[in-house]
Specification:
This protein is of the alpha+beta class. It is 48% helix and 19% strand. Strand 8 and strand 9 form a beta hairpin. The protein is elongated and about 80 Å long. It starts with a strand and ends in a 5-residue tail after the last helix. The C terminus is likely disordered. Bound molecules: zinc ion. Zinc ion binds next to loops.
Length: 405
């Protein structure tokens, strides 16, 4: 499984200059290729990244001689990334590629034959060893490294293909949990626990507004403008760090405590279009939450079960399965017309997600039965037939865990 570790670089001025130059070469190549792509496409051609890379190679000595001062990997990889961006666009996974901007998209990527990692140092072509703030966290085959700027600091993100770091968890807590991600609270667990989201953005929003206003008043190219720019991007970095740290803590806790985790397959893109919600959703980092949860669950041999997008976790009564026809977003509590149970909207959703996750694991168990794990699965099924309770859930999960990886 691919894992990335992002580490701050301790670099001197010479190294910083090199990184800025290499990022510039990558940006130029990317933007040049995107421009070419659009021109060729408009002229009825069929642009490909391979052809564009070849073309750049043939003209760069003449047109962009400064590119030769840095590793040729930087412009090459940028065009490969453009090809990938188009692939994602055609597969409807991403928006149409946009031009890279200076300061914002300062980064370049190296393939594994171009650099070496040695304890807490990384060797960059044409430059030599650069110190890293910590050593690489994962063991495995190194795939690539991306060096990027955030405000005035440089980071390297090293991608590693790590063999599944399986840990047979025979711990006490082999239970399932459903987690409802929300707008008013970040996460509601089916156990009743509620996590008030990390919302650094709102808290720092005033400062952000003030800084960006100040920036627009300053003259372009002036020293003060550059200073203000740096301040602003530092604040951006601080905000995203706060968010990421909080999400790391949460996902570590969840994957440590639970064996099976049911979450909703939020249609985040659709929700982002709803502008009222979008700010808090972006703040909450649902994407990041899902990404971390998935890779940590993989490492620890835990199972994340995604509910179908149309699974009406909020509208179904957890107690009797009655389904409401309509439930407005603002309704935080409701009573079931069939069984009379009072529901907290989010808690009820989380409980439904737990139920969903557990029953989807039962399906795994029955597949196992066909594959010769008959006894195990039958035991699990029998226990399940008794009815839902925590202890049964626990047994069921233990017996079926062989089917999860
Ligand atoms: Zn009910």
């Amino acid at each position: 499984m691919l894992l990335a570790h992002k580490i701050e670089l301790k670099c001197n001025n010479k190294q910083k200059t090199y990184f800025a130059k290499a990022s510039g070469a990558a940006r130029k190549a990317y933007n040049w290729a995107l421009d070419e792509w659009q021109k060729q496409y408009a002229a009825g051609g069929k642009p490909t990244e391979t052809a564009l890379r070849r073309k750049l190679n043939s003209i760069k000595r003449e047109q962009f001689p400064w590119m030769l001062e840095v590793t040729k990997n930087a412009p090459q990889m940028a065009i490969i990334q453009l090809g990938q961006a188009f692939k994602n666009f055609f597969a409807k996974r991403a928006d149409y590629p946009s031009f890279r901007k200076k300061w914002i998209d300062d980064r370049f990527t190296l393939t594994n034959d171009q650099f070496a990692v040695n304890d807490s140092r990384i060797r960059i072509p044409h430059l030599g060893w650069v110190r890293m703030r910590e050593s690489l966290r994962f063991v495995g085959k190194i795939i690539s490294a991306t060096i990027s700027r955030a405000a005035d600091k440089w980071f390297v993100s090293i991608t590693v293909d790590a063999p599944g770091q399986l840990r047979t968890t025979a711990n006490e807590n082999q239970v399932a949990v459903g987690i409802d991600l929300g707008v008013s609270d970040f996460a509601t667990f089916s156990t009743g626990k509620v996590i008030k989201g990390p919302k650094p953005h709102k808290a720092l929003l005033c400062r952000l507004k003030r800084l960006s206003k100040g920036l627009s008043r300053k003259q372009k190219g002036s020293k003060n403008r550059n200073k203000a720019k740096l301040k602003l991007s530092r604040l951006h970095r601080r905000i995203s760090n706060i968010r990421r740290d909080a999400i790391h803590q949460l996902t570590t806790e969840i994957t440590r405590d639970f064996q099976v985790i049911g979450i909703e397959d939020l249609h985040v893109k659709g929700m982002m279009r709803n502008r009222k919600l979008s700010r808090s959703i972006a703040d909450m980092g649902f994407f990041e939450f899902r990404r971390q949860l998935n890779y940590k669950a993989n490492m620890l041999n835990k199972k994340v079960v995604l509910a179908d997008r149309w699974f009406a976790s909020s509208k179904i009564c957890f107690n009797c399965d009655y389904k409401l026809k309509f439930l407005s977003l603002s309704t935080r509590e409701w009573s079931c017309p069939q069984c009379g149970e009072n529901h907290d909207r989010d808690l009820n959703a989380a409980k439904n997600l737990e139920k969903m996750a557990v029953s989807s694991c039962a399906v795994v168990a029955s597949f196992d039965a066909e594959n010769g794990f008959l006894n195990k699965a039958c035991n699990a099924m029998e226990k399940m037939a008794v009815g839902p309770s925590k202890s049964i859930t626990r047994n069921r999960l233990q017996t079926t865990s062989s089917g999860f990886h």
